[in-house]
Q: What sequence folds into this?
């Protein structure tokens, strides 16, 4: 189980979540090559410890526990994992 970033992040990429994450599992960060070209940020499902710290800091409420991910954004679980080749 991991947290998932969904559609509201597209075009937003606020990165407050990056600073809040204790295990540095949200990418691409501002200083990473892929940041400019990526439409959104993603959570590595293999590294996320399900702490929830990223959820309240997101200005567009784009982050959900997998169990709470709205059905209309269900594909974002795979999209987050795919960014990390998982
Ligand atoms: Fe990072 Fe915690 Fe959010 Fe997972 S739930 S992405 S570990 S801040």
A:
């Amino acid at each position: 189980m991991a947290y998932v970033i969904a559609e509201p992040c597209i075009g937003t990429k606020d990165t407050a979540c990056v600073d809040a994450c204790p295990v540095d599992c949200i990418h691409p960060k501002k200083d990473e090559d892929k940041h400019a070209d990526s439409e959104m940020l993603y959570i590595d499902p293999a590294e996320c410890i399900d702490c929830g710290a990223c959820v309240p800091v997101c200005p567009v409420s784009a982050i959900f526990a997998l169990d709470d991910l709205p059905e209309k954004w269900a594909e974002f679980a795979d999209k987050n994992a795919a960014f990390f080749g998982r």
